[in-house]
Design a protein that fits this description.
Blueprint (H helix, E strand, L loop, with lengths): L1 E9 L2 E2 L8 E2 L3 E4 L3 E4 L2 E2 L17 E5 H11 L12 E4 L11 E4 L2 E8 L4 H7 L4 H8 L4 E7 L1 E3 L4 E6 L7 H10 L5 H5 L9 H6 L3
Parallel strand pairs: 7-8
Antiparallel strand pairs: 1-4, 1-8, 1-13, 2-3, 5-6, 5-12, 7-11, 9-10, 9-13, 10-11
Pfam family, one: MOSC
Protein name: MOSC domain-containing protein
Length: 209
């Protein structure tokens, strides 16, 4: 399916753009070591906004190197692995096209695709781009959150292997399109993935389908 370009963990950021909490772990940096991915999250990572991040179905966040290149061109600034706040920078995976509930083998860990990332003002502040939330939402290629089904060690250059894929075929990008683009034409299709969505996302998507 593709490979891990880098595994990234957070350094603490502070500043006005971090919002009411005053600190953020969105700034993630590549590490050369092997990293443990566990049900509780990524070893050495940092979650500050526990209201919106760090739940079991957000144990790891994956984003594509190709999308970083796209936004580098769009914004005229160099974005490097970890700059989207991702734990896994992937090459050749098209993570937004992953199917909800799809299971990945990476290293000796097993991850399960749970749903799209929702851009926020902290993300826009970190990139220092006005209107980024709207632009990122319109583009609709958000990468994906993953749960960790089996803890294991992951490192750069590991292959991403698809172990299983639900028959409903609903992708991360399609769920995002129904939630945030009002794509009623996709509603019946997206409804098929509801059993594979974690709560509270299942409840939110259910109101759209």
């Amino acid at each position: 399916m593709g490979v891990v370009s880098s595994v990234n963990v957070a350094v603490l950021s502070t500043g006005e753009w971090t919002g009411r909490i005053g600190k953020s772990g969105i700034d993630k940096r590549p590490v050369s070591r092997t990293v443990l991915f566990a049900e509780s999250g990524v070893d050495g990572d940092l979650v500050c906004d526990t209201d919106n991040h760090g739940r079991w179905f957000q144990a790891a966040y994956a984003f594509d190197a190709e999308e970083l290149a796209f936004w580098s061109d769009e914004l005229g600034k160099e974005l490097v692995p970890g700059n989207a706040g991702e734990n896994l920078t992937l090459t050749g995976c098209a993570s937004s096209d992953a199917v909800i509930g799809e299971r990945w083998g990476i290293g000796n860990a097993v991850l399960r695709v749970t749903g799209p990332r929702q851009p926020c003002r902290v993300f826009a502040g970190f990139w220092d781009v006005q209107g980024l939330v709207k632009r990122f939402t319109e583009h609709g290629r958000t990468g994906t959150y993953c749960a960790v089904e089996r803890s294991g060690e992951v490192r750069a250059d590991d292959e991403v292997r698809v172990l299983s894929r639900p028959e409903h075929g609903v992708t991360v990008a399609e769920v995002f399109a129904v939630q945030f683009h009002g794509r009623d034409d996709l509603a019946e299709h997206v409804a098929r993935c509801l059993p594979d969505l974690p709560e509270p996302w299942r409840a939110k998507v259910a109101t759209k389908v």
